[in-house]
Amino acid sequence: MKFLVDVNVLCEPTKALASDKVKAWLRACRDDCVVDAVAMAEIWRGIVALPDGQKKRDLSAWFARLKTEIPCLDWTLETALEWGPIVTQVKQSGFTIEIRDTLIAASAKRHGLTVATRNVDDFTRCGVKVVNPFE
Asked: Which of 9, 34, 29, 13 is nearest to 132 (CA)?
């Protein structure tokens, strides 16, 4: 595994006007990708918040397939211990980053992975390697 895939990359294929670059990147890198439990929670939270209807049913079915297609890293004590220094570094640099992104960055750092995301600036500020499949 090489890449920890962020929510904006994972969800891109579900959009009506999905980026061909991202879809191609996901196909090409499929065997080198994992996801973090925090990212999966973020996606699921968005799905369950939708009103009942076809979109919610479609995304629920997509999520059920996603859970079987991409390995998900557990959140462990070792990962948690990576998180504190990341948050401290970001705050000392004068930036504010969403907690979910710092948690995902901690997982990437713990496992030596590159984060695949559109949110390059925040993850770079967290001190992890980043690739932007949208470019």
From this structure: 9
DSSP 75: P
**Residue 63 in contact with residue 5, Cβ under 8 Å?**
no
Domains and CATH numbers, the chain: 3-131 (3.40.50.1010)
Check residue 118 and report its DSSP letter.
Answer: S
Burial of 26 (0-12, 13-18, 19+ CB in 10 A): buried
Tokens of 112: 């030596």
CA 54 to chain centre: 25
Residues 1-18 pLDDT 10s: 799 999 999 999 999 999
Orientation of helix 77-92 relative to helix 99-111, angle to 10°: 120
User: Given the structure tokens 């504190």, which residue do they identify?
Assistant: 84
Q: How much is the pTM?
A: 0.93
Alpha carbon of 35 to those of 30, 50, 57, 71, 91: distances in Å? 11, 22, 22, 6, 25
Distance from the Cα of residue 16 to its chain's centroid: 20
